[in-house]
Amino acid sequence: MARLCRLDRIHLALALLLLLLPLVLSDWHLTQLSQFLTYGLLAASLAFLWGQAGVLSFGHALFFGLGAYAMSLASMGRIPFWPAGSWSGLLLALLLPALVARLLGWFLFHGQGLRGAYLGIVLLALALIAERVATSWAYVGGMNGLMNVPAFSPWPGLELVEPRPLYYALLLVTGLAMLLLEAVTRSRFGLVLRAIQEDERRTAFTGFDTAACKATALTLSGMVAGLAGALFVIQFGFVSPPLIGFGLSTEVLVWTALGGRSLLAAAFIGALAVRWLESSLSEWLGAFWPLALGLLFVLVVVLLPRGLVAEPWLRWAARANGLDPAAREGKPGDHHAED
Amino acid sequence: MTALLLLDALGFVLAILLVAMGLVIVFGMMRVINMAHGELFLLGAYTLLVAEQLGLGFWAGLLLAPLVVGAIGLLLEALVIRHIYHRFLDTILATFGLSLVIKQGVVLLFGPESRTVEPPFSFRLGGEALSYPAYRLFIMAMSLAVVWLTFHLLRRTRFGLMARAVVANRSMASCLGIDTRRLDRWTFAYGAALAGFAGAVMAPIMSVDPQMGMGFLVPAFLAILTGGAQHLAGAMLGAGLIGGTDTLIARLVSPVAAQLIVLAAAIVVIRLCPDGLAARLGRGRR
Q1: CB A244, CB A134: distance < 8 Å
Q2: What is the pTM assigned to this prediction?
Q3: Measured distance CA(B212)–CA(B206) in Å, rounded
């Protein structure tokens, strides 16, 4: 272990930056930053699924929303036969999205599974269904969602409400989840996922159950997205139908594509950067902001498919010897229509 | 009562078909999932609106809409789509980005509020027992006309022959001297023009606002995927199933239940036969 490779030097710098930022930020900005952390984690979970396994999810807010609703309902003690409380809420916010993702993965991928555009449209339709159900089901609060979810209480007598402790708690959980995803990415399983993205049929021929691998990737991604949803609720104490629907699903897609889907941290930075720019520029740019974001998105998709953050990062990392660049490169060019 | 319900169902089916026609042309021939189709529909409606404000009248607007939106389609193809034909998934992303840009552009130009377009005739057809707005019947007729035109174009013209050759085997068609580049460009423009026409012709029965494209896009997508994107008959079958069940359940149970059941059923159908129902039925017959 002589020295860190260039990729990890940036990871370390990012972690240090996020650790030290509370020293200079006001409470208001810190609250914003902790909100961005949850979105960043959601983007990273999508990047894991899309950039590694090549599964494009047009409905990823489904898992985020499931986590958020599970956290809220369990914290409020409104789920029969499930103990009320913060920890049980967090547990359910991990289990429920993971279970749904697992079932979906089995349903969508096994046999002659769905892929590409079909999969995208189906997941989009699922997010629409979820939003529709959340809006019209009184048990989960209907159109207004659930308000006044109790604050997170790690043990009796302590409640996480102050911005600074809350921020560090969220940062810790986000960091651990990112480490888990990154570890899976670098494991043998991560290599199999990238092989599936490259050429699924050939990977299947070498003896891997590609449907099961993709389903596992979807489960892990859904679980982390659900965790991000739970973190959102811990921070704001409410949940509403837009968190589970089409709008957020497409937003997270934009963040991930802008940051770069082949690196988890790049997608994370993409989410943080877009949200930060949005909050600081939207007053100034007004209605021009979505237009500019849309144009930038189209440009990045066409000209710089590896993403605005990941492209220079990967190039810089590839120049050093510490890393084999080919192993980490997303190969966006390999999804031909069969012609 | 039943006759009215059937007419409503037929109207919805034909409306979906009208929107799906452009999608199926672009997807079937170029393998491009055009997420901006709903926004091209929107542009058609606003073209009609502008034409009316300029004093050109409804019918001129209806003629202008496909021309204007077709030209925009040509532009989009040349600027964006052409660069990413070989990257299948990226076409979804890029057209989705275009949809954001177009929608926001419309908000900036015309404001977010909704407008109404008066139908050119508002009388009802039929007698005492059953009467139906004539304009809705006109829309149905227009939808059938568009389907007929597209069939005719693909089956009876040289353009259609070349287009079908490209669908069957792109590189072979290219070797035989067909300019696939040019064909792609005009196919996309034709799909866009159909979307624009659909938007214009349906504007009088909808609220014209920047969000109007989304409402028909998802049913249209599900229609072509359940029916089968390879041929026009699939789109017709899919539109019939989606539109028919949606209207019936909406009337018998509730609109929310209708949407949920139709979406869920469509997902199951797409999963179980990804080539579409038309392909499966066709195989069974042989």
Answers
A1: yes
A2: 0.89
A3: 8
